[in-house]
Amino acid sequence: SVDCSFSQGVCNWKQDADDDFDWNPADRDRGDGYYMAVPAFVGHKKDMGRLKLFLTDLKPRSSYCLIFSYRLAGERVGKLRVFLANKKTAPVWEQNKGKDERWRTGKIEILQGAETTNSVTFESERGKGKTGEIGVDNVIVISGLCPED
User: Would the pLDDT of 15 be above 80?
Assistant: First the structure.
């Protein structure tokens, strides 16, 4: 498995240069490292911020599971989407509100065909709200199908 959480920095993360704003590091409540966040007051409604993770060693014709923590805190904070490079048009995962401000776990199966997925993009779309944030943390890629809860 590959640990792409932000405190360790072993993975190749890049901010998209063509979007409207950047994701920024935010300190974890526990004080052990940080996560990436987009505060609700950044940008204008419908603006986008994209954070791309480059995956270099995924083998063709294999399956992988992308597991990550996410948080949508605040009223009408916006949307968090995940795109895989070989399926650019539609998000493979999308969430537009949190029931509360707790961290939750997202899982996405990456099934490699002849074309391998070489990047995953986390896209934040700004909502109407002025408080809260969208956060992503603990991004891990493991080989095999996603485990059941």
Answer: yes
What whole-number distance in Å separates Cα of residue 54 and Cα of residue 16? 12
For domain 2-143, the question of CATH label 3.40.50.300 is answered with: no
Q: Supply the pTM of this predicted model.
A: 0.90
38 dihedral zone (left: phi>0; alpha: psi -120 to 50; beta): beta
Per-residue CA distances from 137 to 3, 23, 24, 44, 89 (Å):
11, 12, 12, 24, 24
Q: Does residue 86 sit in helix, strand or coil?
A: helix
Beta bridge partners of 94: 81
Per the listing, tokens 């490079």 go with 85
